[in-house]
Amino acid sequence: MENLEPGYDIPALPGWREDQVQTPALLVDLDALEANIARMAAAAQAAGVALRPHGKMHKSADVARLQMAAGAVGLCCQKVSEAEAFVRAGLRDVLVTNQIVDPAKIDRLARLAGMAAVGVCVDNAANVADLSAACLRHGTTLRVLVEVDTGQARCGVDTPDQAVALARAIQSAPGLDFGGVQAYQGAMQHLPTHAERQAAFQASQARLVPVLAALQAAGIACPTVTGGGTGSWGFEAASGLWTELQCGSYAFMDADYGRITGAGGSRLDAEWQNALFVLAQVMSLSRGRAVCDAGLKAMTAESGLPLVRGREGVTYQGYSDEHGQLDDPAGRLRLGDRIRLVPGHCDPTCNLHDWMVATRGGVVQALWPVTARGKVF
Amino acid sequence: MENLEPGYDIPALPGWREDQVQTPALLVDLDALEANIARMAAAAQAAGVALRPHGKMHKSADVARLQMAAGAVGLCCQKVSEAEAFVRAGLRDVLVTNQIVDPAKIDRLARLAGMAAVGVCVDNAANVADLSAACLRHGTTLRVLVEVDTGQARCGVDTPDQAVALARAIQSAPGLDFGGVQAYQGAMQHLPTHAERQAAFQASQARLVPVLAALQAAGIACPTVTGGGTGSWGFEAASGLWTELQCGSYAFMDADYGRITGAGGSRLDAEWQNALFVLAQVMSLSRGRAVCDAGLKAMTAESGLPLVRGREGVTYQGYSDEHGQLDDPAGRLRLGDRIRLVPGHCDPTCNLHDWMVATRGGVVQALWPVTARGKVF
What we know:
The structure is a homodimer. Chain A is of the alpha/beta class. Chain A folds into 2 domains: 18-28 and 270-369, D-serine dehydratase-like domain (Lyase, Ornithine Decarboxylase, Chain A, domain 1), CATH 2.40.37; 30-255, TIM Barrel (Alpha-Beta Barrel), CATH 3.20.20.10. Chain A is built from 11 helices and 17 strands. Chain A has helices at 30-47, 55-58, 61-69, 80-88, 103-112, 125-138, 160-171, 194-217, 233-239, 255-258, 346-350, and strands at residues 25-29, 50-51, 75-77, 93-99, 117-122, 142-147, 176-182, 225-227, 244-245, 276-284, 290-292, 307-309, 315-319, 324-327, 338-342, 355-360, 363-369. Chain A is globular. The interface between A and B is large, with 73 and 73 residues. Chains A, B: It comes from Fuscibacter oryzae. Chains A, B: This is DSD1 family PLP-dependent enzyme. Chains A, B: Keywords: Lyase, Pyridoxal phosphate.
């Protein structure tokens, strides 16, 4: 790090106090992160399911290594370049929970399978043939899962017959191993109440059950059923059907997950700790308004406004590209004050930053590169 | 570029056809960009005002160099790290159109003034003293402008007396040159009709006029009045008050500027060409739905959905982090098809990508790094 310059290149150095960090910066509270990772690892173990956390959320090899050390079986990714970034950083088991159809990307994926255990999802028979041909070229093997649409109406096959046909195609394709079923329903994760998520889960399960029955009837062993997110994992873990959880947000949490409720109406995020913050600074107090330096380029807006932590009565009222409008009715904020914000949506917010500032007790412990930042292709 | 690997590191190589570019990627149509740059340069020259395009929009030294070659007097930036990135890339005149209050950032800014002509805005007297002290330490000079709140209710002083007091403080502070007045009203740029923007401009001008009169009455020469954006620049250019325009979006345009109207009710973007696209690829066609690979990590959502170009009847219906839902009533899309999307909001969308793929006639001409991407602090 000696050739990096704090400020321009990195927002802090180890040993700095939080009030020295150059803002806006992405802060990771290590105590909270470690507690979240331990809690989910224990829950998965208790339920007898594997945990394969989603790397698309944090995009950080450092966070992934903590998750692996706590017993995760591997990592999920969404993009080939994301998987490449994690494999280059030393991760050895990645599942691309997505369809990869571009010839160049398929080639990269088959090549990557020579360096790590690599899986991918399909919902199209021609895609199976293309993946197989690439693996033959590279002399590698890909683990291929059939994605089933369990209610999100996005990707995935619709009927048990289609799932069986694709599984057979994978089984008979050289260079491919049939890995099982991808059954993730993203749309239910942020439904506001436990009852709504439970109902959506039951509908999702009702779409999965006949697929698994058809595979069994066809004599096709299904090694893995993988899915689940931070809003639904308890249902999948208890179902006896899913064998692997893909939760991502649990490690950091965000303001949007803070708005949904768990069983009994309790706040879902009371079970977890906010480990991710955008550190902002008050940069203008003209006319009694407080304006901070964190706007749309420091956190994304599609899941609502960030929450202010540790400043009683202060709220974040509005975004522009580089500014945030704060409401401070008691007028306590001073020019230069630093403020912890809980971003609305952790995944795309992590993707904005080159570095995570890992802190403990208000002191910077490490600078973590956001390994797969911008790896969208 | 020989040690970069197309795919993982960069989305394309010069000479590739557009249908080989790894998606999602940020495309810049060079013919459209050059036309936009030439048109605004000519308009500013005809109006007798200087043009200082806003670098926060594109964050690209390559685009900035084209703007400078067309007669721009310098570049605007919003952040110290952004200004540092542009100066490192060879730009020699940058104005930070923002307040910089953090001691470490002030120090970096004063140091940067030893490498380029650097300006900054203030709305606070203590900030003037801090900037001056830093310039004395580094033996440099900063050009300091008084920001006036002309109606956005964000940063900037409120009254003519405050403006005069700050201008005097700057004039008497060693290491600082009084550069004039920053008068930018961002909130009016995207008002939907010409009449609404004109009314907002008149209110903005009504706040500026007494400030300029008070400065004159106090015997303070005001070398520059700078402001204006892509939605309002015609008003500022014709006012006889503003001496410099700060437009940014005109170079690329976006879907949101396409929704507002110019004089006579014509589309504002009919005067400009869309030069910025997110190239996406159809990755799933399960159940008759087309899903593409460009979601929230390829373009931001706060200004509405992207527009599909060149695919009749196809519309972009919804986002998730890595997916876009397309509506294709005629069922013409095929797996692997590439689609040009006009993003909703150019500024934060450019900030998501590491590279711009500069194309002409469907062939890649160059890969441009997004010089100041992520330079938020």
